[in-house]
Here is the input.
Amino acid sequence: MVHGMFICRDHVSAKTCEDCVRAAIKEISANCPLKNDASIWFDKCFVHYSNTSTFSSLEKDPSFISTVEKDPYVCMSNQVHSSDQPSWFKEQLSAMLAILTYKATSDPSNRVYAEDVIETGLAKFNGIVQCKSDLPSKDCFNCVSAAANRVSYCLAGKNEGIILSPNCSTRYELNSSTQVNSTQSPAPTKGEWKERGSKITISASVSASLVLLALLGICLYYYYSKRKTEMSNTEFQLLGFDDSLVSENQVDILDFPVIDLDIIHKATQQFSEANKLGEGGFGPVYKGTLVDGKQIAVKRLSRSSGQGMKEFMAEVTLIAKLQHRNLVKLLGCSLKNNEMLLVYDYMSNKSLDLFLFDSTRATQLDWKKRFNIINGIARGIVYLHEDSRLKIIHRDLKASNILLDHEMNPKISDFGMARIFGSSQSEANTNRVVGTYGYMAPEYAMEGIFSVKSDVYSFGVLLLEMISGRKNNGFYLSGQGHSLLDYAWKLWSEDKELELIDPLLTKSLVVNEVLKCIHIGLLCVQDDPAERPTMSSVIVMLGSNPTTFTEPSQPLFFIGRIAPSAQAQSNEIGSSVNGVTISNFPPR
Here is the structure.
């Protein structure tokens, strides 16, 4: 018996698909006579037959003649000359394919197809992912993952290419708007993948009869009839949890733990209101307890949010690769039944703002604890800017995004707005300003220009807030100045810095340390980014004598958007632009 199948590109017409399949059958007959197994790829279709059934299964070890012997993947590119690719290329390409694969496997129509322009941090890609319609989601992910892993050797130096296999096909091209410091052949734009003049034909070497007319009939039957085979609900899972919380499979395309949705449902008691910690612009956060007693925090992203997928992938592709004691630990994620979930270590003391701006809780933050938190935040930012494998700009540093563990150690959280910089990149520009008014550097809020110095500015605001116990947002309503920064500079210039200090710190105060921190804070919020220190310099300054510091100039009277009067209240938290970050964790 001969088993036949085909895949046509999703958007081709029935007539185009039929013509492509007929042409493929003609070519496969001429090129693979008397073979038991054969596959052929055209630009718009793929045809495969075998004397054994391959439906709903992943072919792992066919004897394919390919670019690499025994490898069931074929690589093709229109780019004639190779180019030097930046170090981030493969990682960003994998992130793009991960997004498309998720879209393909979560499509309710079971087309298992996705085509889109995807922006992933540094790069913008045009991409296509398509799997066999009867292939389970996990196998589709595994197939695309394996294809992505081959890019580094079978398409090295190619900024556009196609990777084909009997189970899936992937296409990518670096969008022309992405800046790459190399000379390269121009990649075709979306929709302009030119027809391949040469067909790719692969066959096994065992003889048998071909029943190609029957194959064509089967193909056309499947194409015109509804695809009744339901996609398996088996969610792809990854390594990373003890106690068999996940399977032993690993999806290389994300290289990150995925937790079964049922485990999260049980941990959060079906996302009960009693377990809800807070609400952000793209979803609520819930507390959960795993079967072994470990407590977790689950961020549930809303799929109706226009930015949900972008920020989900930003968190997964960025924080998954970051390891530092002052960054919140992302334990895993879940993608199933239209859910997008991020699972973190639960921080029992929640966020810094709940202590700092609450007159009762603030008594727990003596100067020793505050100075430790200041140092921890600074070390975490230095890691992002200089010490991690990636150069990362957080873009939304604020008190509510600093979580505190049971020992009051700070953990920087919420990387949904973060951006990756190339090793030689110093700044970037955006038309979409995101972040929180009151913490934004002037050049970012007014011109969309951001850099590591944008985070330095936000750190300076946070530092002055920790010393004063007061918010920069809404400060003008107090009648003491245009902003907390202006007020702090005025006191510093009049040698009255001690008047800035939170009265609750009187008993625990270390005067020299506090004065030093005020000076550093004012340097960090200088109008000119070039006048602000780097975060590594801040670390040195925190342990140095302030007599060696430069003199700060008066900060610009910039407060961003005028805050509503409610923001001046001590129990309110400044909100992010477009409400993206989680910023209101009520006390429990």
About this structure: The first strand starts at residue 3 and ends at 8.
